[in-house]
Amino acid sequence: MSSTRIGLVVRSAPFAGRSGRDQLDIALAAATLGFEIEICFLGEAVLQLSPGISPEAAGLPGGIRGWRSLPELTRVTAWANGREFDSHSAANGHWALDLRAATKTQMAARMAACARVLVL
Amino acid sequence: MKVFVIVNETPWGSSLASAALRFVRAALRQGLEVPAVFFSGDGVYHALPGRMSDSGQEKPAEAWMTLAGQEIELLLCSSAAARRLDGIPAETASAFREAGLARMWALASDCDRVVNF
To answer: N or C, fewer C-beta in 10 Å, chain A?
Structure first.
C-alpha cells in the first residue's frame, strides 16, 4: 500500500459549504496510510489553498488551512487551473501547497495514472 | 469484480443519490460484488428515515436497507456523521454503521473499481 498513488479531484470553493474539512480529512487519512497523493483543484476550489482566505469571516469552519500539513505526511503533487489560479499566481504566487499549472487534459492524464481516484 | 461505492451526495440534493442506488442494484444484477457502500459528507443523511416520501418514490434509507440484507455493508463516515447526526437513528441502526476513513481507503484498495457519486 505504501507505494500506491491515489488521485483526488477537489471541486469545492472554500465558501461552498459548512463541510470545509471533509475533503481535507480524506486526504489526510490517505496520507497517514502511506499513499502518495495527486490532487487536482478545479476552478474556484484552488482558493482553499489561498493564505488570504478566512472562512471564519463567513461563519464557516477554518479547517481548510490544514492543507499545508499534507506534505509533511506523504509525497503530494498538486495541480490547478482556471482564472482564480492564474490571477492569484500572477499577484503573489503563494499557495498552501506547491501548486503546478495544468490543463484539464493534463489533469485527466495524471488522474488516469493513479491507482484510485476520488472526486470530492 | 469487486466494486466499492462512495456516496457524497445528500438524498435530496440531486439525482446522484438515486443514481447510486440504481447503480448498486444494476451491479448486483450483473453479478458484480459490492462489498460496501460508504456514505461520506452529506451522504450520511441517507441513514435518516424520512416520515414521508413523494408519490411513487421510495424512501432513501429504506431502499438502502434492503441492500444491507444482501451482504452489503452500509458505512457512514464517522467524522461526517459526528458533525451532522446525533448518532444513527434506531430505525436504521440495524443496517448502517459508522466507519473511519482508514476503512474507506482499505476498501478502495481491496476493490477492483471505486465509483463515487
So the answer is: N
Q: Which residues contact A52 (CB under 8 A, 6 or more apart)?
A: none
Confidence label for A114 from pLDDT (cuts 50, 70 and 90): very high
Residue B53 lies in a domain: no
Domain count, chain B: 1
Closest residue in B to A28 (Cα–Cα): B101
Q: In a mutagenesis test of the B interface, which of A23, A26, A74 is the best target, namely the one with the most B β-carbons within 10 Å?
A: A26
CATH code assigned at A38 = 3.40.1260.10
**pLDDT of the residue at A1:** 47
pLDDT score at A18: 64
CA–CA separation, A44 vs A77, rounded Å? Answer: 18
Cβ atoms A58, A15 nearer than 8 A: yes
Contact A43, A9 (CB under 8 A): no
Predicted pLDDT at A63: 65
Closest to A33 (Cα-Cα) out of B6, B105, B98: B105
This complex has an ipTM of 0.76
Select from B42, B79, B116 the Cβ nearest to the Cβ of A25.
B79
Q: Which domain holds residue B92?
A: 3-48+58-116
b (16+ CB within 10 A) / e for B81-101: beebbeebeeebeebbbbbeb
- d(C-alpha B35, C-alpha B37), whole Å: 7
> Which among A1, A25, A117 has the least Cβ separation from residue B109?
A1
Residues A7, A76: Cα–Cα separation, whole Å? 10
Residue position matching grid coordinates 482508514: B102
